[in-house]
Amino acid sequence: MASLAEIRARLQAQENKGGNTGSTGGDNAIYAHWNMNEGDSATVRFLPDADSNNTFFWAERAMIRLPFNGVKGDMNSKQVQVQVPCVEMWGDSCPILAEVRTWFKDASLEDMGRKYWKKRSYIMQGFVRDNPIADDSSTNPIRRFIMGPQLFNVIKAALMDPELEELPTDYQRGLDFRITKTSKGGYADYSTSNWARKESALSAEEAEAIEAHGLHNLTDFLPKRPGEEELRVMKEMFEASVNGEQYDPDRWGAYFRPAGMAPPAGGSAPAPQPTAAPQPAPIPAPVEASAPPFDADPVTESAPAASEPVETPTAGTQKAEDILAMIRSRQQSS
Q1: One domain, residues 85 and 191
Q2: Which H or E element spans position 250?
Q3: pLDDT attached to residue 74
Q4: Residue 27: C-alpha distances to residues 30, 31, 130, 139, 237 (Å)
Q5: Are residues 225 and 328 in the same domain?
Q6: pLDDT tens-digit profile of 68-112?
Q7: How far is Cα 174 from Cα 201, in angstroms, rounded to an integer?
Q8: Domain, as residue range, for 12
């Protein structure tokens, strides 16, 4: 388990770099905090990652949403979205963002660029200690959380507070986190969420649950890393989406599908077909609002800053170890 100082060091190193940076279980393991009523709050207690090599108690996920004007062959279909992984999660070059980055050089294409920009979310795990959602239960009390950027920024800000002395995930001196749902501008707002002021230990029942069920390795719930064939399909789907085409299950169903669509029966995946270079089309009407599935960002992410998409990810020059040494030196002298 990483120390608080190590977490702070890694977070600070990421800040200095400019901010760059599964399976479902089938037992209602994802806690859908976005389904709370406006004005409700849920109290959760985060737990560490089972992977001791992970400094943080979360795994970051980056997805790209591809909207399509219906499903080919379905006369009654409405607009659908397909999520594909942004391979920058693994430090690879993303073929979609390589195209989208160029759009930000033209002011008239910036809105379109933000539409296809990667959306970040953060996978965590822990207990739900106070649950306002009716009929919500899981066979395993250790739930998984998908936090959007707004909630994650609240969590991160507290971790960087020098007055925080212990890890919030500590079994004896950790802190609860209160997720509060309000609204702003017609969208869900979680900015008033906060950490508890007092430390608390896990209960005997919670300790027994960890012993009985074990902790999750959070990277197990990231999407599969695409290979060359999947990357070709992603680029093909992206081009079709930008051109305003429909989703074609015969061409892409074996690779990526809208939420709720069953995979094709039998057979191996067909070879991707080439398409014409994309020309930004008018932005389609928004998808009808619905409760997001577990692999959707539960919070609408605000558009990235204009400078973010035109930057090419580069390795940071400041080492986390240097910051960690400075923090440890400060703790020893206090």
Answers
A1: yes
A2: helix 249-252
A3: 86
A4: 8, 11, 19, 6, 31
A5: no
A6: 999 998 888 789 999 999 999 999 999 999 999 999 988 989 999
A7: 7
A8: 1-20+314-334
